[in-house]
Amino acid sequence: MVEEQHQIREEDEIDLIALVQTFWAGRRTIFKFVLIFGLIGLFIAIFSPKEYTASTVMVPSSSSKGAGGNLGGLAAMAGFDLNVGGSTELIPPSLYPKIIQSIPFKKELIKTPLKVSDVEEQITFSKYYTEIHSPGALGWLKKYTIGLPGVIINGIRGDNNSAVIEQDSAGLIYLSQEEQSLHKILKNAVTIEVNDKEGFVKLEARMPEAVPAAQLATRAQQLLQNYIIDFKSKKAIDELNFIEKRYEDKEKEFRKAALNLARFQDQNKNVISAQAATTEKRLQSDYNLAYGVYSELAKQIEQQKIKVKENTPVFTIIEPVSVPVEKSKPRKLLILAIWLFLGIVVGIGLVVGKSFYSKLEKR
């Protein structure tokens, strides 16, 4: 038993020595690949476009307490029906990524004004990427190598770059090639991460310059909040608008009833008759009813305004947007280390493969 273990140990030592000898014999090949891959990594590290990342962290919540006016009695008095159930709908944070990737959201976001270097006036995100921004050496290399088929296809299709997103009478949205390109850029430029466990949302914006990155992040945050607030408060706001419209109508009826009553009383001050008394009672009854509906609607308007505020989502900003100081990309040392490691792996793999193939041929 001891002799077998000793023999296995000797075989392992022999295999290890043979492997080291193989590496030493192929050291030039390994060095060449390390050098080649290192130069590639150095090229990528130097010519990769700069990127700055601005971010914000917020906690979405709703201040809704389920308040809702019960307008059943008012409806009976005024002769109309108000369906004012509590509005508790809220967009779940898990859908926030879908919102920022939607066409209407991007349509607004590409209009974001940006302050870029070497340009005195602010320009939009759209104008920056269509007229100012240069993709750099790696961008051109990628475009005319990997992206060459797409360039050829776009050339065959022809130029279809309208200035704005068009929408026909049926509500269908048409995007030009330029707009599709801008939307693809936005897909990578603005991202959102939802932490369901801790309940916060992190929004990030990436741009080649620091200030535009912060401006884009701020605008994306504002748009996202507006979308969510509009969705949550829409029902309560619609109800408020409806009540205000009815209030205006009933105010006219109330003023008309008051005027009719006052006019009749002025014209029949000294008249004593059953007919005049009956008419006055009828006019007084119309006035009281109109006043009751009018005053009740005024109360309901104030209640509905409170309801709108209660149904408005509240966003607690944990970490506001700030202008980034350091670049987030490229991470030059990491890029160089990865490519050097790949060179070592490929070089060693080639040397070991050649050695293994030579042994097979000898057999």
UniProtKB/TrEMBL annotation:
<keyword id="KW-0812">Transmembrane</keyword>
<feature type="transmembrane region" description="Helical">
    <location>
        <begin position="333"/>
        <end position="353"/>
    </location>
</feature>
<dbReference type="Pfam" id="PF02706">
    <property type="entry name" value="Wzz"/>
</dbReference>
<feature type="domain" description="Tyrosine-protein kinase G-rich">
    <location>
        <begin position="282"/>
        <end position="355"/>
    </location>
</feature>
<keyword id="KW-0472">Membrane</keyword>
<dbReference type="InterPro" id="IPR032807">
    <property type="entry name" value="GNVR"/>
</dbReference>
<protein>
    <submittedName>
        <fullName>LPS O-antigen subunit length determinant protein (WzzB/FepE family)</fullName>
    </submittedName>
</protein>
<feature type="transmembrane region" description="Helical">
    <location>
        <begin position="30"/>
        <end position="48"/>
    </location>
</feature>
<dbReference type="GO" id="GO:0004713">
    <property type="term" value="F:protein tyrosine kinase activity"/>
</dbReference>
<feature type="coiled-coil region">
    <location>
        <begin position="233"/>
        <end position="267"/>
    </location>
</feature>
<dbReference type="GO" id="GO:0005886">
    <property type="term" value="C:plasma membrane"/>
</dbReference>
<dbReference type="InterPro" id="IPR050445">
    <property type="entry name" value="Bact_polysacc_biosynth/exp"/>
</dbReference>
<feature type="domain" description="Polysaccharide chain length determinant N-terminal">
    <location>
        <begin position="12"/>
        <end position="102"/>
    </location>
</feature>
<keyword id="KW-0175">Coiled coil</keyword>
<keyword id="KW-1133">Transmembrane helix</keyword>
<dbReference type="Pfam" id="PF13807">
    <property type="entry name" value="GNVR"/>
</dbReference>
<keyword id="KW-1003">Cell membrane</keyword>
<dbReference type="InterPro" id="IPR003856">
    <property type="entry name" value="LPS_length_determ_N"/>
</dbReference>
